[in-house]
Design a protein that fits this description.
Shape: globular
Structural class: alpha/beta
Oligomer: single chain
CATH architecture: 3-Layer(aba) Sandwich
CATH topology: Rossmann fold
């Protein structure tokens, strides 16, 4: 069994957390030119899955995809420049936080429209099958709100029917914006619904990065060995910050600080950090802080797109 380095996990978790904390700090200055949906609290899902993948594997994300982009190896400087609306960004400053992409490392794109990247991942998996590539898979990330979209059902059925090399990752943080899952679903049975389409499906409790990694690793191995078609994971997690923006929203009446407390207590960042020697942990943190400082400086100094860019990368 392949073991995962605690140093690798900690660096990824810490890097994502600190990047987003810095985004939250800078956001009120209006230097960041797009809405931001922070992944603080949910990092374990992206990190656990991404560490189980290979560079050639393709991931498709939601508008809350900073964690996925960074965990899969996306360029941090280009990400921050994109948030600043700069020409050096991952989308030349045109997409912002919700449309990150880095094809070089398999980040095929994120979308602001709920559910849209689910069929894209399935289509990519179909292309993998047609090309006969036995060591490549697609992974679709979406929230619990995404399963309310008709395209989720269509994609699940098609992937199961064609036995496609795709892993479905539902990041269930209980809320579609401000609507709790139980206000939208008669039963909390997302994993059961996935299983009904004819694929292995499992709920992973506790935001456990090690368990998520191990389950994703086994799933990828089964798919590439030809022993399984699509596999579904419902990863229970929780966002600490507001739906969109840098602050929190516990005064808005739809959730309470008490609901957050067990998730903070079970935070995977200190959990993994405590498995490291103090000197090693401190060295990782110093290196990440230098990288983040350089990324924001790069974004600050980068130019905005020229007017001519209005007419590039468009259909008409």
């Amino acid at each position: 069994m392949k073991s995962i380095s605690h140093e690798t996990l900690y660096r990824s978790l810490y890097r994502i957390r600190r990047v987003e904390e810095e985004i939250a700090r800078v956001y009120p200055t209006d230097k960041i030119q797009s809405p931001v949906h922070l992944s603080i609290g949910q990092e374990a899902v992206s990190v656990g899955v991404a560490e189980a993948l290979k560079p050639q594997d393709a991931v498709f994300g939601t508008y809350r995809s900073h964690a996925l982009y960074l965990a899969k190896g996306g360029d941090l400087k280009k990400m921050i420049a994109e948030l600043y609306g700069k020409h050096t960004g991952s989308n030349k400053g045109k997409g912002g936080s919700m449309h990150l992409i880095d094809v070089r490392v398999g980040v095929m794109g994120a979308s602001a429209i709920v559910g849209t990247t689910i069929p894209q991942a399935v289509g990519f998996a179909l292309a993998i099958r047609y090309r006969g590539d036995r060591d490549r898979i697609a992974v679709s990330f979406f929230g619990d709100g995404g399963v309310d979209e008709g395209v989720w059902h269509e994609s699940m059925n098609f992937a199961a029917l064609r036995k496609l090399p795709v892993i479905f990752i539902c990041e269930n943080n209980f809320y579609a914006i401000h609507s709790h899952e139980r206000a939208r679903h008669a039963r909390a049975n997302i994993v059961e619904r996935a299983r009904a389409y004819g694929m292995p499906a499992e709920r992973i409790e506790g935001n456990d990065v090690l368990k998520i990694y191990e389950r994703a690793r086994r799933a990828r191995q089964a798919i590439t060995a030809g022993k399984s078609g699509p596999i579904f994971f419902e990863c229970m997690t929780y966002r600490w910050r507001q739906h969109v923006g840098p602050g929190d929203d516990y005064d808005q009446g739809y959730r309470t600080k008490k609901e957050l407390e067990p998730w903070v207590k079970n935070d995977q960042l200190p959990r993994i950090g405590n498995l490291l020697a103090p000197k090693k942990r401190a060295a990782i943190e110093r290196a990440v802080e230098r990288e983040i400082k350089a990324a924001f400086a790069y974004a600050e100094k980068s130019p905005f797109p020229k007017v001519e860019e209005l007419f590039t990368d468009v259909f008409a």
